[in-house]
Amino acid sequence: MIRVLLADDQALVRTGFRLILTQAPDMAVVGEAADGEQAAAMARELRPDVVLMDVRMPSVDGVEATRLIRAGGAGPTRVLILTTFDLDEYVYAALRAGASGFLLKDTLAADLLSAIRVVATGDAVVAPSATRRLLERYVPAGAPQAAVTDPGVLTEREREVLTRVARGLSNVEIADRLHLSEGTVKTHVSRVLAKLNLRDRVQAVVYAYESGVVRAGAADH
């Protein structure tokens, strides 16, 4: 069973999500939180697989709650951000804080359940192209922030793969562009994540922009 914690300041929204999740035979709602502080505390106590986190809440918002959860104390719990607003600074901040992706609150029930399953396996659910647009908007061109791990640890091929991941290409598209098999691309992506201590594809995209491997607004070659 995938254990899910709901975090939203609106009780009706939580009720709606609970009704959807209870219809899934492989999911169980283990708790509900009305704000970010409560969500972080419940995540530490309950250790759910996934937290469905509203990004905008009073007091402690979803961004800070995500940071608290990912900083430690909640084990392998992953955060899926829910927002009414597509591609805004709150979503960007949440991705930087360690969220494994984001969905709009009007996402179809089937897509929500699918996203929870993907995140629970350790992958990311944000379309890379959407993440790229978000980053190009909020990361200043030519002004990368210091990266946690030096990109110099990557081989030239791994760097090429990371660049294309950041540009929104799928594994199939990267394979075609670099004349590799899809399996080989998957292996390279896995090695990139391991070498850079990144959780998933979303974090790889954030890293690529903030480390300067990819410049906002630059064209892909």
What's the helix and strand layout?
Elements: E1 2-7, H1 11-22, E2 27-33, H2 36-46, E3 50-54, H3 62-71, E4 78-83, H4 89-97, E5 102-104, H5 109-120, H6 128-138, H7 156-166, H8 171-178, H9 182-195, H10 201-211
Parallel strand pairs: 1-2, 1-3, 3-4, 4-5
Helix pairs in contact: 2-3, 3-4, 6-10, 7-9, 7-10, 8-9
Characterise the protein shown here.
- The chain has 221 residues and is α/β, with parallel strands linked by helices.
- The protein has two domains: 2-126, Response regulator (Rossmann fold); 135-211, Winged helix-like DNA-binding domain superfamily/Winged helix DNA-binding domain (Arc Repressor Mutant, subunit A, Orthogonal Bundle).
- Helices cover 49% and strands 12% of the residues.
- It contains ten helices and five strands.
- The protein has helices spanning 11-22, 36-46, 62-71, 89-97, 109-120, 128-138, 156-166, 171-178, 182-195, 201-211; strands spanning 2-7, 27-33, 50-54, 78-83, 102-104.
- A five-stranded parallel sheet has the order 2-1-3-4-5, sandwiched between helices.
- Strand 4, helix 4 (89-97) and strand 5 (102-104) form a beta-alpha-beta unit.
- Helix 3 (62-71) runs parallel beside helix 4 (89-97) and helix 6 runs parallel beside helix 10 (201-211).
- The longest helix has 14 residues, at 182-195.
- It is globular and about 50 Å long.
- The mean pLDDT is 87.
